Amino acid sequence: MSFIKKIESGKLLKRELLLPSIEGQILSSRLSENDLFSLELYSLAKGESISSHNLLELTLYVILSGKLDVSSQKLGAKEYFLATKDTSCELFARDDTQVLIYTFKNDIELRNIESNKVNTLASQIEYVCNTVSSKIILQKKELSLTLFSFDVDEGLSTHKASGDAMVIPLEGSVFVKIDEIPYNVSEGDFIILPANIAHSLIGKTKYKMLLTVVKS
Which domains does the chain have, with CATH numbers? Predict the structure, then answer.
């Protein structure tokens, strides 16, 4: 069973191929949804906007590429903005932009990232010599979001997960094996590690990523 839809698991993609940028248009695709959250990918052409609306739930905007104004906040690539419930929100693309939008349901609370403040995900976790470091943003049975940092030649040994794991590289590059097939994954790449398939990750350089695991 696939828990993250519309993107082929175990295949390396460039982010610009996830959704095209089409002049004068806004494209969106729902990638995943369960009782805890929904995950949507948006592609907004330069100059396009989504009019002001009140957020019904806690909402996390993660900019993959481009430049996006979220109300009065100006975001660039690899930056995030966590908007609290009932915030009045308007989106405006200052460049061709791809953004992942996580909407959390049932009063879910996130850890280790600030709300209503623009920041980079990479700055939220430090490198530690000869170590893999992790920082949990959300840990539930059905869904987890975790920041990782790998020192060079450090990583996650071969294992299987019960959910699909979406890898968003933030800094550096990593060597990934999925069912013995090798991939070199760097900033600007996008890959999903499929559920119940053996995979491993080893840092080719110092490396940081956001990992989203969906299990139902």
Answer: 16-120 (2.60.120.10), 122-214 (2.60.120.10)
Say if residues 158 and 166 touch (Cβ distance below 8 Å).
Answer: no
Tell me how far apart the alpha carbons of residues 25 and 21 are, in angstroms, rounded to a whole number: 8
Strand partners, 129: none
| Rounded Cα gap, residues 25 and 202, in angstroms | 39
Q: What is the pTM of this model?
A: 0.96
Q: How many CA atoms lie within 13 A of 55 on its CB side?
A: 24
3-state secondary structure of 9: coil
Identify residue 100 by its one-letter amino acid code.
Answer: L
| Residues 88-108: tens digit of each pLDDT | 999 999 999 999 999 999 999
